[in-house]
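Quick one, probably user error.
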């Protein structure tokens, strides 16, 4: 017997390096890591499951996302918040709608 890693570092999607992400929403694990962030899971078209860390914008849009929803997340770059003066990652999230 041996320990098996469930999430490998390479499985975590980096929007800055990898760009947009498209696939089927698989779910979320809440309160993860040292900051207690949400980690989301998406199954890509090639069948590979990847995860990504949430932020306030992603959390607000994905909190009621149904498992199985086809989605596309576009990384729009960094934006300065007028309210806090902090820089954050901005995203556009779209879901697939059948006609």
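Nope, works fine. Designed sequence:
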């Amino acid at each position: 017997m041996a320990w098996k890693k469930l999430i490998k570092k390479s499985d975590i999607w980096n929007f800055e390096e990898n760009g947009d992400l498209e696939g089927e929403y698989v779910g979320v694990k809440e309160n993860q890591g040292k900051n207690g962030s949400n980690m989301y899971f998406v199954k890509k078209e090639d069948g590979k499951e990847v995860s990504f860390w949430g932020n306030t914008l992603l959390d607000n849009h994905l909190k009621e996302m149904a498992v199985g929803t086809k989605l596309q997340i576009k990384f729009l770059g960094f934006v300065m918040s007028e309210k806090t003066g902090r820089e954050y990652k901005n995203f556009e999230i779209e879901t697939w709608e059948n006609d």
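Residues 79 and 91 are 10 Å apart (CA to CA).
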